[in-house]
Design goal:
Elements lengths: L1 H19 L19 H4 L4 E5 L1 H6 L1 H10 L2 E4 L5 H4 L9 H12 L3 E9 L5 H4 L5 H18 L6 E6 L12 H6 L3 H12 L4 E6 L6 H17 L5 E4 L2 E3 L4 H12 L4 E10 L12 H18 L7 E6 L9 H5 L16 H9 L2
Parallel strand pairs: 1-2, 1-9, 2-3, 3-4, 4-5, 5-6, 6-8, 7-8, 8-9
The structure holds (3S,4R)-3-hydroxy-2-oxopiperidin-4-yl beta-D-xylopyranoside (XIL).
Length: 356
């Protein structure tokens, strides 16, 4: 018995000695969790931009966060228009546009200027202006050259004239055309070029994808400018299109613009889901997927152009909450790649797919 107790005691002693020994706890190797998030512009083979609203840039961090993260080009949605920049004859209001230019410079983003001369968004001092054609010419030239000079070296490209044509292909009867004749468009390009010879100058318009007559008129004007040595470097196609726009029409617009040999900018892309302006309509994932197919087709077709012609694709604003479309068409819509909660929609991924 004594012998057994001794053995037991010895065993216990050994056991307790062993258990006191520091056994290293097993090292569990868990792979680090790497959240790989996409940034749209890093996934695209050409610049990708958004038109931005300056007050949202200043006051909404979710909005400015998306712009900062996803895009490498910006356009002012309204802040560089005539009425915003030049509210009275001797007053220029640079604050908002300068804010955006400064933001773009700090963040290494390109800034595209929109727009020097347009038939609308004019201040009343212009629409009420009284003067002969020399006085009108001087007004137009002074505006162009003051603006281009102010941003010289910072804004490297401009929509010089916006929307000169009607959908029928005839020149729009704008105040500029009434006072100065059709060829004011060419002179706008010359004035802008004089003020900043290194700026890239674009003619910008909508409807290339649905009006062959308008498309032809635009292409003819560009051909004429090239023949006359008018400094023009690119064509901007707005592409405010609908989910029903056909592949054939998108292709015709893109190949037509590319046939000029100039740079091509899809300058104001948005794709409406409610083209009949129905009031009682809701976003569905079906609609979102249809829209994604259109976004993908646009990007894919555009991406077939030579690198030197791909100036980039710019969407007209950032999220469905901020788009001009619902207000313009007087009905709900969801035209952009981000939803009203600032989340990516299928169109976002579709753009990346299209750019592969
Ligand atoms: C629109 C803006 O998005 C709106 O906020 C503004 O009220 C009117 O202008 N073609 C253009 C753009 O060239 O300047 C327009 O922008 C949309 C149509």
């Amino acid at each position: 018995m004594k012998k057994y107790s001794l053995l037991l005691a010895t065993a216990l002693l050994i056991f307790s000695a062993c258990s006191k020994k520091e056994t290293p706890s097993p090292v569990v190797v868990t792979p680090p969790v790497v959240v790989v998030d996409t940034m749209l512009y890093k996934m695209m083979p050409f610049p990708v931009g958004a038109a931005v609203n300056i007050s949202l840039m200043k006051n909404n961090v979710r909005y400015s966060g998306i712009v900062t993260k996803e895009y490498n080009s910006v356009t002012a949605e309204n802040a560089m228009k005539f009425g915003a920049l030049h509210p009275s004859q001797n007053t220029y209001n640079w604050a908002d546009a300068d804010y955006l230019v400064n933001y773009a410079q700090l963040g290494n983003k390109r800034i595209h200027g929109h727009t020097l001369i347009w038939y609308t968004s004019l201040p009343t001092w212009v629409t009420n202006f009284v003067g002969d054609s020399a006085a009108w010419e001087n007004l137009m030239k002074t505006h162009i050259q003051t603006v281009v000079t102010h941003f010289k070296g910072k804004v490297a490209s401009w929509d010089v004239v916006n929307e000169h044509f009607e959908d029928t292909g005839i020149p729009r009867n704008s105040v500029w055309r009434q006072k100065l004749g059709n060829d004011y468009v060419a002179r706008c390009f010359q004035y802008a070029h004089e003020a900043d010879p290194s700026a890239l100058l674009f003619y910008n318009d909508y409807g290339h994808e649905y009006s062959a007559a308008k498309r032809t008129a635009i292409l003819n004007m560009i051909t004429d400018f090239k023949a006359r040595g008018i400094p023009i470097h690119g064509t901007g196609m707005q592409f405010h299109m609908t989910v029903n726009t056909s592949d054939a029409n998108i292709t015709a617009a893109i190949t037509g613009a590319a046939s000029t040999g100039l740079k091509v900018h899809i300058s104001e892309l948005d794709i409406r889901l409610n083209p009949s302006a129905a009031q009682n309509i809701a976003y569905t994932s079906f609609l979102g997927d249809q829209q994604a197919l259109r976004y993908k087709y646009v990007v894919k077709t555009y991406n077939t152009l030579p690198v030197s012609q791909k100036f980039g694709i710019t969407t007209w604003n950032v999220t469905d909450a901020d788009s001009w479309i619902p207000g313009w068409q007087g009905a709900p819509d969801w035209p952009l790649p981000f939803d009203a909660n600032y989340l990516r929609k299928p169109a976002y991924k579709a753009m990346i797919e299209g750019g592969k």
